[in-house]
Amino acid sequence: MLAAAFSMNAAEPVDTCFQFTDIKVNKTTSVKDQNKSGTCWSFSGISFMEDELLKAGKGEYDLSEMFVVRQCYIDKAISYVRYYGQANFGEGAGLIDVPYVYDKYGMLPEEVYTGLQYGEDKHNHGELAAVLKAYLDEIVKNPNKKLSTAWLKGYIGILDAYLGEVPESFTYKGKTYTPRSFADMLGLNMSDYVPLTSYTHHDFYKPFVLEVPDNWMHGQFYNLPLNEFKQVVDEAIDKGYTVLWAADVSEKGFKWYDGVALMPKVDESKSMEGTELDKWVKLSSKEREDKLYDFSGPVEEIEVTPEVRQQGFDNYQTTDDHGMVIVGKAKDQKGNLYYKVKNSWDDDQVYKGYFYVSEPYFLAKTMSIMVNKNAMSKATKEKLGLQ
């Protein structure tokens, strides 16, 4: 097992098979908890924006994730109805959605808009998501033979009941703002943020619409060769920027409570599932997995090439699961390099809400990233046609 006590300052685990040493960790705000809501994209995106404010010397802010969720729910509903219910609709969204909301609707601080108006202390969107989807599915059935002028107002009423109405104006630290003027006061420029990916089925150095269901507004991502893609992350971290990260976390080498994500080189032929031994031992699927992927410390990992990465995307082994923030770099006791990542699953975990992602895991399972273009090299920006 990989259980350990952890010091956030020195990164010195106690009684563990992994020993991580932080090489560089950039300023970031506190770990939050999305709890029972599929809103990692908003939590990670907001965390990234909060980090940008820290980096710009504007101080520490706690911004509202649920304001962003609410505004996206409205625009996703309009899109869903316009597509006669044949578009994606759900709790998920993408890296580009927080900048989208910031530009179109502004921003709110957490203390003004918590999104907890339905008798819960923590976010739990099971009922809300089900009600919203059911409502829209009835609308697109078009029982009146044409849509009424009331459907959107009724839909927004559901959001108001659960998440709360958005104030026209509010007071924050003694000053009065609207959502728009608050965002303007923060002073972030959304055109500074560049979404990037790396896949071979599109031309490099050009943008394309990333083909994942949660990209509901068909946003474009710049495409870089894999080595340059990783270089962008490394340079950003070295310059003091955090990186918004979307990745697949369904891999068997993703061990959240152990605080590590690896791509171990495993011989799947050694799985005993379906064998005569399995017939009598009767291990659960989790027990089989634990035996096969029981790495007690650093292990040999797979070599990740652009072809391996593309294959994972094409055959559904790499999916758009989760949004997080890369805040730094580290190494283990054998000198292997890792990215230090902040999650939004609370801090009841070995590294208090952070974990370490090996380079092979990053290369294989990253779906996309977003960085401040000022963190990118001049050469890369020129190749992408960025100013």
Question: Could you explain the architecture of this structure?
Answer:
The protein has helices spanning 40-55, 65-82, 97-105, 126-140, 151-163, 179-186, 226-238, 276-281, 285-292, 306-314, 359-365, 378-384; strands spanning 21-25, 170-172, 175-177, 193-197, 207-209, 220-223, 243-247, 254-255, 260-261, 322-331, 337-342, 354-358, 366-372. The strands form 2 sheets. Strands 1, 4, 5, 6, 7, 8, 9, 10, 11, 12 and 13 form an 11-stranded mixed β-sheet that branches. A two-stranded antiparallel sheet has the order 2-3. Strand 10 (322-331) and strand 11 (337-342) form a beta hairpin. The chain contains 12 helices and 13 strands. Residues 1-15 have low confidence and may be disordered. The protein is an alpha+beta fold. Helix 4 (126-140) packs antiparallel against helix 5.
Topology:
Blueprint (H helix, E strand, L loop, with lengths): L20 E5 L14 H16 L9 H18 L14 H9 L20 H15 L10 H13 L6 E3 L2 E3 L1 H8 L6 E5 L9 E3 L10 E4 L2 H13 L4 E5 L6 E2 L4 E2 L14 H6 L3 H8 L13 H9 L7 E10 L5 E6 L11 E5 H7 E7 L5 H7 L3
Parallel strand pairs: 4-6, 9-12
Antiparallel strand pairs: 1-10, 2-3, 4-13, 5-6, 7-10, 7-13, 8-9, 10-11, 11-12
Helix pairs in contact: 1-2, 2-5, 4-5
